[in-house]
Amino acid sequence: MIYKKLIILSIIGTLLAIGSIYFLKQNTYAVTASGWKAGAIIDDSLFMDKDSMSVTQIQSFLNSKVGTGSNGIPGQCDTNGTRASELGGGTRAQYGSVNNNPAPFTCLKDFWEVPKTIPGPAIPDNNYGGKPIPSGARSAAQLIWDAAQKYNISPNVLLVKLGTESAGPLTSDDWPFLRQYTYAMGAHCPDVWDEAQQRWVAKCDPDYSGFSIQISEAASLLRWYLDSMTQSWWPYRKPYQINSIKWNIPASCGAANVFIENKATAALYTYTPYQPNQAALNNMYGLGDGCSAYGNRNFWRTYSDWFGPTTAINGSITISKGLSIDKSSVIVGDTVTATYEVSNSAGYDIDAGVLGVCARLNGANYDFGSKGQNIILANGKIVVSYTKQINQAGELTIYTCAYLAQAGGWISNTYPYNINSLQKTTTIQVQDNPLVTTGVALSPANPIAGQTVTATFTVTNASSNPIDIGSLFIATRDPNGNNSDFPTDPNVTVPANSTYTYSKSRILTIAGGYSFYIADYRNNMWYRSYPKSSTDTILRQGTIQVQDNPLVTTGVALSPANPIAGQTVTATFTVTNASSNPIDIGSLFIATRDPNGNNSDFPTDPNVTVPANSTYTYSKSRILTIAGGYSFYIADYRNATWDLSYPKSSSGSILRKGTFQVQDNPLITTSVATNPTNPIAGQTVTATFTITNASSNPIDIGALIIAARDPSGRNVDFPMTENVTIAANYTYTYSKSRILAVAGNYTLFVSRFKDGAWNSNYLKVAVGINKSITVQVQQQ
After folding, report:
1. What is the spatial distance between Cα 721 and Cα 29, in angstroms, rounded to a whole number?
2. Single pTM value for the model
3. In angstroms, rounded to a whole number, what is the distance separating the alpha carbons of residues 460 and 709?
4. Phi and psi at residue 149, in whole multiples of 5°?
């Protein structure tokens, strides 16, 4: 039976003529024998560049290669095998049917397989032949990329190995058979001598059958070669020394010494342990002679055709120690040092160009530094290290960076070359610092108007460097919305690993609700959120209630409590200043209105200043001359304004306004009486009564008489006592006599003459007392 593209998978990479024909059709960067360098097939930097292609780019590459075979129809897969078979037998579908692989065919660009991660004889589930894509399957492009990432081998290299090791090759075959996928990379397929066929054939381990494990194992083998070849026990090709490399398997073909200049070349010679002879090189896209081997020639040729030169600019300049920073965590204010090492594996000095440490903080440029003309001696190394103080929180990405003019400028992503998958970038979260660690506290916590209030909070700098945080204060707005800020602490610098305490005082003069918040001024900008708080519970803004002060603490008291007209009355109340500062409260008095509504104010105490933490007592006296109901209230005069509600009261029970009753005075305290009680006509009669002045002041009541009217209504008054002044707290007795000559009823009553007028109603009487009587005078 004839098989399509006989699968001769060999570590030596011997290509069938049919395979060579396919390669002949697709070269875009033709190479010649003069370009071949046996000791440096490809630079390490290109061989181990795992990021040389993305999954999308690999997929695009596979798409572009399908159909570039003998029919030359790019990008098309002859899925149904309708085209003529290059191998005879009618159409491709017909050929496949005869050779146990009927259409439809599935090209590599469309191939999906469930990754085989554990060796075993089963072929992994896949979508070959028009089957649905199995659950968990990954595309060929994804499988290639996954292997490249896992083993730090360039996807370019894996694609080239696939193109040189697979039958077809798979990379460009537009009607591949399923068995072409089975041992696509020749991994675990050693060459053995077949006596029956009298030739070397590949003896493949069925446990490693399947496209996914072939790709993975090929990358794994290359990585193992690279990591092991400098060990003393390594039995295969070694870099940096002379190695004897055969031309082909037969001993008669001989060998030649090669100084292998790098690890990548040594790995290729380990994977395919033969070098092309001159015949193979002279017919670069064809066959040589019987001793020609093609694996490494075809790798070099194909890589060059597909991806360009196999040498990189400054290809020996690689990262030998990955990027590291000197802190496991970073806070604002910390000084961070980033370091990496760059080596030159060449036997001569090289200017590595500009090398530095670059960074982005929250997406903005935050580079640490760089320097040009970094001369690295032959087989030498240099340490690149830069330090920067971090002054802003957020996401900080630090990475190695380089500028190489001959490569077109900044090529940080690829240069210095990272052949050992060392760390080139790191991202850290810079924590806020400094932080408000204790929130705003007021002392006293419940201030009163006029009191000195101290506001404090603390800011901690946890970094090892001092931090300038600008000017700090507590912004405050009074009940009317006016600025009442606490003093500013200008140009605050918090020392390293230290705590700064803001502590400032001011007098809050107005009672009511105040708002406050921590404020910072720096870089010509105001901030309410800087410094940030160490926890969400930190009090950085809020409100406070300033209590009224001074306060009336004892209400109005009168002494005596029940005054009488003409008596000296003392009015008192107290005002307490609980603040630590004296307070000018203006002029105080007790405004009073007499029964007729006239002003009867108690005296004013002008320009009252209550000392700090003291109580002031208003105590003033006056004589209230008119009996009746009086009203009163505490009054204050300041700033050219009368204020009846200032100072406020300490509680609702404080008496600050009210009424009181002034009793009549003087009073007739004994009734009018005659002696004898029952007089006879012509007899001398004595009339008496008493008047009491209960006040503390003498009272001038003018002239007093007992007015009398005889039975005919004629005036028969008793004698007048002129200019009567009754001493304070004294009782005056009126006692006068006269003859009542006519018999009959007489009317007697008390009367006063003052200021040119008689007034019989002036003198009031005590309870039960009569100030007028009727006397019956008898006939003789």
Report:
1. 151
2. 0.63
3. 103
4. -70, -40
What's the pLDDT tens digit per position in 58-107?
999 999 988 654 444 555 899 999 999 999 889 999 999 999 999 999 99
Other C-beta atoms lying within 10 Å of the C-beta of residue 102: 14
| pLDDT reading at 24 higher than 50 | no
* DSSP-derived secondary structure for 239-295: TTEEEEEESSSSGGG-EEEEEE-SHHHHHHHHHS-B---HHHHHTTTS---TT---H
Please give the share of the chain, as a percent, with pLDDT higher than 70: 95
Nearest partner of 258 among 102, 87, 40, 81, judged by Cα: 40
| pLDDT single digits (tens) 229-262 | 999 999 999 999 999 999 998 999 999 999 999 9
Q: How many CB atoms lie within 10 A of CB 346?
A: 18
Q: Is 207 helix (H, G, I), strand (E, B) or coil?
A: helix
Domains for the chain: give ranges and CATH numbers.
17-307 (no CATH), 317-431 (2.60.40.10), 435-546 (2.60.40.10), 551-662 (2.60.40.10), 667-777 (2.60.40.10)
- Pairing state of beta strands 199-202 and 628-638? unpaired
At residue 713, what is the residue type?
G
What residue type is 400 in one-letter code?
A: T
Distance in angstroms (rounded) separating the CA atoms of residues 685 and 458: 99
Q: What is the DSSP string of 469-498?
A: EEEEEEEEE-TTS-B-PPPPEEEEEEPTTE
pLDDT score at 219: 96
- Beta carbons within 8 Å of 255's beta carbon, 6+ residues apart: 244, 245, 246, 247
